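Lab notebook, design round three. We kept the backbone fixed and only want residue identities now. Task for the bench partner: fill in a sequence for the structure below.
Input structure tokens:
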């Protein structure tokens, strides 16, 4: 996912979500517990425990967005699986919520339901990766960033689908999909998963794979945040792109040829190459409220092949800048889009998103969306890091994998993923954000090019106010199956923070309440 604020500044180059559900009035007995004296002795010597009494607590519970974010009363940095089990058992037996943090980049508004929790911070001691030469897989800790996974594979001459942003959690991303530039060749991040080690809310640790705990294996690859803490995961890898270099074309247009941009995209989409990945972004330069169109065009292969696709856009009138570079695959997340994606890893902002996937673009509707984007910038000049992003990646391998192979539902609906990403500092503008965001999403649904007027959302890009079936599938059996797994593996709904299949807010498309009956 690209970040408008930094795209406009770094390249010339982000982000996301409204209170979806108010935090429930949990009785929080936290303050009665002296964690250092009670939980502390149960942890191994390599683990760390931070509470609000630590003067530097704020630096331990940082997250990418402050919007509707979870809050924490303590942070545990486990050093062993036993530490994770001990922390979960302590939390559940004392009625304290807990939260596994991987890369800290989750931004669904549903996360706000987690308040005054114990954070199990995985990145510190479960943030590394190891290449397994015997089967060419990579094993990562549950908090490893995409960059760490990519570097371990790359060093062995291998690759796999990772997200565009180096600081996102590789496991966090894969649990709900793992969408990335190489997905046309290798499928989603979750498709590369070989096995996971998972700790449930009752403290049981399980091996989960196609051979072991196969029902949970199905559920955790698409709705994985619902069931347990992933201590470690192993990903399959693939031979690297021949020549090992990737093309990066960066183009900025002034918007005069906007219709042509979307017409060319419509023309290209039916035969979109597996290794081609475009980010098409409406952004504004910092200090300016004039929108520009940024095209970040990446191709897994040589320039002469990439040019067939990218030079059509570069030849359009209104070009303000065009650059072409070749990067190694491991460098791409840091260098593509002028380094702006890596620069969006900062933590102190209010960011939120609205999202919908479409099949085709209506150029007139995109002109209207452009005009409305400009009006939003004028009305809220301090939110000029806001942007409208379309991710257009290959889908061949994603759609080859049978739809029922995992709980990830929309393999045939990931052609073009749309994101309206808000980036702001003043919380009082939220009503303006919601009004614009909902109208943009509705317009996108009505002009999606699908044969129905349904919302299709990649769960990791969801705001959290969407009906559950728009994330996990319109076939009823999918949500039923996810709920059966919930009853079996997390009957107390301890893992309720991220698109909870049990008590997700809102109603489904039939108007039925989505709250399940967890008994
Ligand atoms: C700047 C940016 C760029 C992005 N780019 C992409 C992209 O290119 N492709 C893509 O697919 N997605 C992308 N995303 C979305 C991303 O996949 C989700 O936000 C994802 O939830 C982030 O995972 P995390 O571990 O970083 O976040 P966290 O906030 O740590 O976790 C998010 C959720 O996952 C759970 N979780 C994380 N790790 C574990 C674990 N080990 N065990 C159990 N639960 C866990 C958390 O409890 C939480 O519920 C991007 C997000 C941002 C902010």
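Proposed sequence:
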């Amino acid at each position: 996912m690209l970040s408008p604020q930094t795209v406009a500044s770094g390249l010339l180059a982000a982000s996301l979500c409204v209170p979806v559900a108010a935090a429930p009035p949990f009785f929080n007995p936290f303050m009665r517990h002296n964690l250092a004296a009670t939980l502390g002795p149960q942890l191994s010597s390599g683990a760390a425990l931070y509470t609000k009494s630590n003067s530097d607590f704020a630096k331990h519970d940082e997250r990418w967005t402050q919007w509707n974010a979870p809050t924490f009363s303590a942070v545990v940095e486990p050093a062993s699986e036993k530490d994770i089990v001990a922390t979960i058992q302590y939390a559940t037996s004392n009625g304290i919520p807990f939260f596994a943090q991987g890369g800290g980049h989750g931004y669904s508004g549903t996360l706000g339901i987690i308040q005054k929790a114990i954070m199990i911070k995985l990145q510190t001691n479960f943030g590394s990766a190891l290449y397994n030469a015997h089967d060419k897989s990579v094993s990562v800790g549950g908090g490893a960033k995409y960059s760490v996974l990519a570097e371990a594979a790359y060093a062995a001459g291998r690759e796999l689908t990772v997200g565009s942003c180096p600081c996102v959690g590789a496991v966090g991303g894969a649990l709900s999909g793992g969408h990335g530039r190489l997905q046309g060749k290798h499928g989603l991040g979750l498709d590369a998963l070989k096995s996971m080690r998972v700790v449930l809310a009752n403290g049981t640790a399980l091996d989960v794979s196609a051979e072991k705990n196969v029902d949970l294996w199905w559920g955790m690859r698409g709705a994985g945040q619902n069931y347990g803490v992933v201590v470690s995961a192993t990903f399959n890898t693939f031979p690297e792109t021949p020549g090992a270099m990737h093309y990066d074309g960066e183009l900025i247009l002034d918007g005069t040829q906007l219709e042509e941009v979307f017409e060319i995209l419509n023309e290209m989409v039916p035969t979109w190459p597996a290794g081609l990945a475009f980010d098409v972004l409406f952004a504004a330069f910092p200090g300016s409220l004039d929108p520009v169109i940024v095209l970040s065009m990446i191709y897994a292969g040589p320039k002469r092949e990439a040019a067939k696709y990218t030079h059509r856009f570069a030849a359009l009138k209104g070009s303000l800048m065009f650059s072409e570079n070749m990067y190694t695959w491991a460098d791409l997340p840091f260098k593509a889009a002028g380094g702006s994606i890596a620069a969006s890893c900062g933590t102190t902002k209010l960011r939120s998103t609205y999202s919908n996937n479409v099949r085709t673009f209506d150029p007139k509707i995109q002109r209207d969306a452009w005009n409305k984007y400009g009006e939003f910038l004028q009305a809220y000049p301090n939110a000029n890091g806001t942007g409208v992003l379309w991710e257009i990646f290959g889908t061949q391998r994603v759609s080859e994998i049978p739809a029922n192979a995992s709980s990830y539902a929309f393999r045939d609906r990931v052609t073009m993923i749309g994101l309206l990403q808000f980036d702001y500092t003043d919380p009082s503008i939220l009503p303006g954000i919601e009004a614009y965001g909902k109208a943009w999403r509705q317009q996108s649904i009505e002009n999606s090019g699908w044969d129905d007027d349904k919302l299709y959302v990649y769960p990791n890009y969801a705001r959290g106010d969407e009906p559950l079936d728009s994330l996990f599938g319109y076939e009823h059996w999918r949500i039923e199956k996810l709920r059966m797994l919930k009853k079996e593996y997390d009957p107390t709904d301890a893992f309720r923070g991220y698109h909870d299949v049990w008590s997700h807010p809102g109603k489904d498309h039939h108007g039925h309440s989505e709250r399940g009956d967890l008994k």
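Keep this in mind before ordering anything: Residues 59-121 form a domain with the Uridine Diphospho-n-acetylenolpyruvylglucosamine Reductase; domain 2 fold (CATH 3.30.43.10).
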